[in-house]
Amino acid sequence: MPYGYTGRILHVDLTTGTISDEHPSESFYRHTMGGSALGLHYLLKMVPPKADPLGPENVLVLSVGVLTGAPIGGLSRVIANAKSPLTGGIGDAEGGGFWPAELKFAGFDAIVVKGISPKPVYLYIKDGEAELRDASAVWGKITGESEAMLREAVGDKRAQVLQIGPAGEKGCKFGNILNMSTRACGRTGMGAVMGSKRLKAVVVRGTGRPEIADKDKVRELAKWGRDNLEESGAWGMQLHGTAGGINGLQETGALPTRNWSSGVFEGWEKIWGQTMTDTILTDRDTCYACVVRCKRVVETKEPFEVDPLYGGPEYETTASFGSYCGVDNLVAIAKANELCNKYGMDTISCGGTVAFAMDCYEQGILTQEDTGGLDLRFGNAEAMVAMVQRIADREGLGDLLAEGSYAAAQEIGHGAEDLAVTCHKQEYPAHVPQAKRSLGLIYAVNPFGADHMSSEHDPSYAPGGGESIERLSAIALNDPQDARSLNDEKVRFALTTQYVYSLLDSLGTCMFVWGPTWQLYDMEQLRELVEAITGWRTSLYELLMVGQRRLNMMRVFNAREGIAREQDMLPKKGFIKLAGGATDGVGIEETDFLQARERYYAMAGWDENGVPTEGTLRKLGLEWLVD
Ligand code: SF4
C-alpha cells in the first residue's frame, strides 16, 4: 500500500456502461502529485484535437491530490478537468468540501469518465466498488433536493454527493459541479461537460483511510495550524469570509464596478464581509479537517428568501452580483448566490454575464423588449436576480446569456463585443488588472482563461508587504515591486508564483491554507507535509517542477486546439482608463502589456507564439508531447 494515495484510478465508459480499474506506478504519482496534472495527463492521451467539448470524445477527470484525506486542513479539494465548452481550450476547476476526502476513503485517487450515457445515471462508489445507477428520478432536480434523494437512495446519510444542477443538464456554458450544494468546481463549464455525458452525480462513501508515512509530523503540523491560526492571514477569512477584504480593494481602486468601468463602488460598505457578519450571517462552515472555517452560511426572508442550505456568498460572488452590477443589496446578492448553487452555475461567469447585459442595456444595445420586460439598468437588484433565474431556466435572453458573455456579445453585435470582459472567453474574476498589473498578465496568458487563483496578487510583492515579502524569498523573489509595475521582475514574480499555484492545484491544497505569502502555512511547511504524508524525500525545486509541468501540459493542450498568442490578450475594457477613486484615470498601455507578454513567454521557455519549446518539454519529462 503506497503512502498518501490509494494507487487506484477508476475508468468509466458511459457509452458502454463499463467500469475498470488502473494501478499507475509510483513515479506517475510523483510526476503529477495527483490533481490537475494527473487530469491533464489523461486528457492529452485520450481527447483527440478538435473534439466537441459536449460530445462523446471529451473526457472528464475528477481527481484529488496525494495529500487529500490526511487529517489536516486545506487538503480536501477535488479538481475537474475536461475540454472546456466555455473557452474551447483546457478546462480546470477546483472545489473543497468533504467529497474529496471521502473519495480517498472510498479507495480511489481519480475518476476518468468518457462517452455519453444513453440515459441519466449516477456513479455510486463504496469502499473500492463502483457501479452506475439510474438517475432519472433526480435529473432536473435542484442540487439540495437531489442530494437528499441520492443519500436516501444509497441508504447512507454520510454519503458525499458531487453533482450538477439543472443548468449543467441544460448545457449552460458556465454550469459547474458542486458538492454539499455549496462547494463548487466553478470555472470553465465543467458542469456542462458532466451534463452532456448525462452523469448527474458521483456519490461516494468509504471507511478506509490513506496510509501516512509520518503520522507524528502530520499531527505536529496540524497542531501548529490550530495554535497559530489567529495570528495568521487566514484568521480574517474565518471572521468575515473572503468578502472581508472588500474595504482594501475599494481603497486601492481594485473593486470592479459597473462592468469594469471603475475600481470603486459607492455601495461597498453595504456588501462588505463585515456587514454580512453583522446582518445576515447565521453560521460559519468548513471543509474536511479545516480549522480556517471560511465558508459563510446566511439566511434571509426579505426582500428575498434565502435558504441557508446553499451557504452564503464569497468575495468573488459578492463582487460579481454586487459591484459589477452596481447592486448594493446584500440580500439580493445572497439570493443570486443561492440560485447559482441550486441550479449549478459559476457565480463569477454568471455575475459577469449579467453585468455585461446591464452594460448593453444602459448603452441601448439591448432594449426592454430584448430583456423580456426587465429594466436591466445597473443597480436594479430585482432585475439582476430575475436575470439569474432566467439564465438558469434558459428563458428568453437568459438562453443566450447561458452561453457566456463572449458568445452572447458575438450574437448581439452592435458594439456588444467591446463590453464583454473576458480572457480566453472566460469572464474576469473580481480584481481590477489596472490596479494589479501582473495579475492582469496572468488573466491573459492563463490557459483556462481569466483566473485569480493562478498566481499571487501584486500587493503581496509590493514594498511594505510584511511577512509576504519574507516568505516569497523561499521561491527566490527578493526584489519587491510597486503593485502597478509590469517590469521584468514583476513578470518573473507572476510566472514563479504561477508555478506555485499550479502546484497547489495538483496537490489539491486550498490556497487559503497553504501558499507562498499570507496563508496559514508557508511553502517550507508544505514541503514538510508532502514528505510526511508520502514518505518521499522532496524539495521545493521538485515541487515547483510539478507546477511548471501542469502549466506546460495545459499550453500543449491549447496549442493542439489552435489556441496560442492571439488569445493571450486582455479585452478592450482591460486597457481603459478607470473612473474614480485611487485608480481614477489609470489604464494599461497596450505596448507595455505586449512587451510583458513577450518577456513572460521567454521566461517560461515558450516560443514567440506562446507554445512550449522542445527543450522545455524535455526538461519537464514531457518528451511524449514533443510531437
Ligand atoms: S480555508 Fe475555507 S475553502 Fe479552504 S479548506 Fe478551509 S474552509 Fe475550505
Describe the structure.
- This protein has a 6-stranded mixed sheet with strand order 2-1-6-3-4-5, sandwiched between helices. A 6-stranded mixed sheet has the order 8-7-12-9-10-11.
- α2 packs parallel to α22.
- It is built from 24 helices and 16 strands.
- It is of the alpha+beta class and 627 residues long.
- The mean pLDDT is 97.
- Bound molecules: iron/sulfur cluster.
- Iron/sulfur cluster binds next to loops.
Radius of gyration over C-alpha positions, nearest whole angstrom: 22 Å
Strand order, sheet with most strands: 2-1-6-3-4-5
The number of distinct β-strands equals 16
- Uncertain runs are none
Characterize the biggest β-sheet: 6 strands, mixed
Indicate the percent of residues in helices: 25-40%
Distance between the termini: 36 Å
Given helix and strand content, the structural type is alpha+beta
Share of β-strand residues: 5-15%
The distinct bound ligands, ions and cofactors come out as: iron/sulfur cluster
Helix tally? 24
Q: What do the pLDDT scores average to?
A: 97
Question: What global shape is seen?
Answer: globular
